[in-house]
Amino acid sequence: MYISIAGNIGSGKTTLTRLLSKHFGWQAHYESVENNPYINSFYEDMFRWSFNLQIYFLNTRFRQILEFRKSGIDIIQDRTIFEDAYIFAPNLHDMGLMSSRDFENYISLFELVSDFIKAPDLLIYLRASVPTLVRQIQKRGREYEISIRLDYLQKLNERYENWVNSYTKGKILIIDIDQLNFEENPNDLGVILDKVNAQINGLF
User: Fold this and answer.
1) Fewer CB near the terminus (10 Å): N or C of the chain?
2) Which is catalytic among the residues 45, 74, 78, 84?
3) Domains of the chain from N-terminus onward
4) Does residue 164 register a pLDDT over 60?
């Protein structure tokens, strides 16, 4: 079984990945942040480093998916390869933070590898308002995220909603986290576990 968690920056993907992995015994795969050689440079100069960052994510996530196929074990993944192609790269291009030349090159590469991509058996989307995202970004205190623009988060949210509303690659579970604190409140986590249980029971 292959489960993925999608959501905007600060939506709680990594935390929920860890909690679901522990509860269900799934192997967790996290987005590469600490070892990402481009992330700091990207937030300092988005236009200069946007293409490099997206290629890095495409490479690492594609390699992960190939490893998932070989492993034969139950896996939960923090963020999908589709979010880069359908949300982050187009958003950077539309905001003038990625050139048309780089964007077209990126999309061409994504289309090349897409035939080898297995969609998740279940996609969990964490829906969050911009104030919630900002609060959680500030709470975790990553220095390179302090300069993230509010309009950048808002445009990403809009793209997430458009993508989720047209998602047809598999089952999807949408969780509104504005009123949930699943990291610190066991009852809130229980609500999510019940929803996930209901979904995965339908996969077999």
Assistant:
1) C
2) 78
3) 2-201 (3.40.50.300)
4) yes
β-pair type (122-127, 75-78):
unpaired
CB 171 within 8 A of CB 122: yes
- Tell me if residue 121 is catalytic: no
pTM: 0.88
3-state secondary structure 85-128: HHHHHHHHHHCCCCCHHHHHHHHHHHHHHHCCCCCCCEEEEEEC
Query: pLDDT tens for residues 69-111?
Result: 788 899 999 999 999 999 999 999 999 999 999 999 999 999 9
DSSP the chain: -EEEEEE-TTSSHHHHHHHHHHHHTPEEE----TT-SSHHHHHH-HHHHHHHHHHHHHHHHHHHHHHHHHH-S-EEEES-HHHIIIIIHHHHHHTTSS-HHHHHHHHHHHHHHHTTPPPPSEEEEEE--HHHHHHHHHHHT-GGGTT--HHHHHHHHHHHHHHHHT--SSEEEEEE-TT--TTT-HHHHHHHHHHHHHHHHTT-
